[in-house]
Design a protein that fits this description.
The protein is an alpha/beta fold and 228 residues long. The protein folds into two domains: 172 residues, Vaccinia Virus protein VP39 (Rossmann fold); 43 residues, no CATH class. It is 25% helix and 21% strand. A nine-stranded mixed sheet has the order 1-4-5-3-2-6-7-9-8. It binds S-adenosylmethionine. The site of S-adenosylmethionine has 15 residues, from loops.
Length: 228
């Protein structure tokens, strides 16, 4: 039975022992034991609808449970500083402009406790540039196959379209390469020396790396940083 937990979010520390970290821009991909957040409204099986600023959970605080907070990541999170040991976001930051991305990363920096780890997965600009230059690569055909069900047939599947869809479909606002994303993470307050490019499902801790979804692997840029 889904329910909303009416609690003062400033006292959310009571819940923290039950969550592994903050999962931003989760969409429908809610993770067990994480505080999942997204701007979308969701409706539970019993018709209960999520409400901005109110914690939503199937049963309440306990291990192996889902938690959801409906929240627009452009606004400050209604949560205290230094709260979470980890923060994860997968294919979310590219939906923000670069300036908005900085605001989001500054918030994440505030919410992480010292030593807390941020892991970001986002499409990699360089991968698409390489496919534009080398359309004979199997990954190019995989992209075409993926798009076939999702965009009208009259769009060409040529190199120009395949490159432009990265920017103009899906609501994407900014596409990063490692250098650019590192600069933004550093500007948000993370030490340069802590910023590290990672491979798919490889990182500092299993709790974070295991969240990478295989469907994102082909064009994934994976970056971690640690709050000082
Ligand atoms: C491509 S989906 C990714 C969902 C999920 N992370 C995944 O990989 O399947 C992008 C998500 O970002 C969310 N989003 C976009 N702008 C947002 C904002 N300003 N605040 C919170 N969520 C936002 C959307 O609602 C959507 O669920």
């Amino acid at each position: 039975m889904s329910t909303q937990i009416e609690i003062d979010l400033q006292n959310i520390g009571t819940m923290v022992p039950f969550v592994t970290g903050l999962h931003c821009g989760c969409g429908q991909s809610w993770k067990h034991n994480w505080l999942n957040t997204d701007s979308q409204t969701f409706i539970g099986s019993n018709g209960i609808q999520t409400v901005p600023g109110t914690l939503f959970s199937p049963v309440g605080y306990q291990r192996n449970e889902f938690y959801y907070l409906q929240h627009d990541a452009l606004d400050p999170f209604p949560l205290p500083d230094n709260l979470f040991a980890n923060c994860y976001s997968e294919h979310f930051i590219e939906h923000l402009t670069r300036d908005q991305g900085l605001i989001f990363l500054q918030e994440v920096h505030r919410l992480l406790c010292p030593g807390g780890i941020l892991r970001i997965s986002t499409p990699n600009l360089i991968d698409k540039v390489e496919l534009y230059l080398n359309p004979e690569r199997p990954e190019y055909l995989q992209d075409v196959e993926f798009l076939n069900d999702r965009v009208p047939a009259h769009f060409p599947r040529n190199r120009a379209f395949m490159f432009n869809q990265l920017f103009y479909l899906w609501g994407h606002q900014w596409i990063y390469d490692f250098e650019d994303l590192s600069l933004l993470i550093e500007q948000a307050g993370f030490p340069t020396s802590s910023i590290q490019r990672c491979a798919f499902q490889e990182g500092k801790i299993a709790d974070l790396e295991n969240l990478d979804h295989p469907s994102r692997q082909a064009d994934g840029l994976y970056v971690e940083a640690v709050k000082a």
